[in-house]
Automatic annotation (TrEMBL):
<dbReference type="InterPro" id="IPR036188">
    <property type="entry name" value="FAD/NAD-bd_sf"/>
</dbReference>
<protein>
    <recommendedName>
        <fullName>FAD-binding protein</fullName>
    </recommendedName>
</protein>
Amino acid sequence: MAEFGNPDVVEEEVDILIIGGGMAACGTAYEIGPWVDAAKKEGVDISVKLVDKAAMDRSGAV
């Protein structure tokens, strides 16, 4: 079993946080794209981040 010890903590401020890398999370990220684009046209900068616990090469949704 892997030992996690003291993992690095990364704090970031985002407007929209999507948790998970499955189809629902990826679909959510895709679907909010037009809203983010519309906000940018109005001068509002929206940050979006998708986080997943799995390594990209091991994730089943990739």
